[in-house]
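Before the break, one more example. Copy the sequence into your notebook; we will annotate it together after we see the structure.
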Amino acid sequence: MGLTDTAIERIKAMIVDGRLKPGDRLPREADLAEQLGISRGSLREAVRALSLMRVLDVRQGDGTYVTSLTSALLLESMAFVIDLHQDNNVLDLFEVRRALEPLAAEKAALRMTAEQGAALMAHVEAISTTSDIDAVVENDLVFHRTIAEAAGNPVLSSLIEGVAHRTFRARLWRGLDQEDALEQTIREHRAIARAIVDGNPVLARTFSIAHIAGIENWIRHARDEGRLGPGGVSGT
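Here is what the structure looks like once it is written out:
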């Protein structure tokens, strides 16, 4: 293990064992380097790396602080990696969605309150076959986000949010290309929402798998048939 990696591990250990908590200011560089038994150069590199990972926040002229360490913040680096994926990897993103979103739907069916359920159904009914495609895609994003948040697992919710936004263009392209895409989306969203509101986790999971798999299958065929132009399937 390199010296910088050692420094990172030692700072991480301080956070894990509670010596440093969210919002805490790190000791002075010289003091922390001595405390950790590392050089100041290695410490600076470690702090730089951890700030890129959103674990530390370097405030010029003020000091270095531990961030809030929320799941959404820490997973931003994962979103950056996803952004670097080329368009032909969009199917990989949908494969991940197919693993995560059914789990969220299952958990939401067990945890969603009556008030949240009513809001979800109202959201689904707010879209019709005459709605603008941009409104439809935005409704779709909020629909999946609402379910993820209702699942009650912030890590799961953050992962879904990071992946879902980066399949935005795929859903937009499908809406423009596939004649019955909107009608099918509305029907599938209603089925998922109804299963969740009814407290049926098995149906919620099943309908969610079918929904994501259907879009994934369309993308695969559209790509193979050359109906997807450069940059036409993925994005934020």
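The mean pLDDT is 83. The beta strands are 56-59, 63-66. Try to locate both features in your own notes.
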